[in-house]
Amino acid sequence: MASHSVVEIVVLVAAVALYFLPALLADRRKRDDLLVIALFNAVLGWTGIGWMLALFWALQPNPPEDLGAQTKERERRLGMGVFSGLLSRHIEARTARAADREGQSH
Fold it and tell me: Transmembrane among the record's keywords (predicted)?
């Protein structure tokens, strides 16, 4: 009778460990968003799809610490590229108009 209870306890612990495998892996991989992954796993893991998404998420690398700064810098560079392109076209058009006027006056 006691051995039957031990087997049940071992099976229960194994099932809980399997259910929380994504959270355990996230902890092992030192994910910055461990709590969010664990909560997601706890709430939606029973759906199967939620468990697979939590596992996928746990296996992803940590995002860069300065992701916001990198995004702002990328946007600034993109904006500067657009601005310089527009400025170049404006200068070319102005130069072409000046050349046309000079050609008409001669």
Answer: yes
Residue for token pair 């994910």:
31
| H helix intervals, 1-106 | 2-19, 21-28, 34-44, 49-59, 67-105
Q: Is 17 strand, coil or helix?
A: helix
Which single residue is written with the structure tokens 């000079």? 102
The residues near 39 (Cβ < 8 Å, ≥ 6 apart) are: none
Instruction: Tell me how long the chain is.
Output: 106
Structure tokens at 38: 């664990």
Sign of CA dihedral 42, 43, 48, 51: negative
More confident residue, 83 or 103: 83
Q: Is the pLDDT of residue 21 over 70?
A: yes
- Count Cβ atoms within 10 A of the Cβ of residue 27 and give its class: 0-12 exposed, 13-18 middle, 19 or more buried: middle
Structure tokens at 1: 């009778």
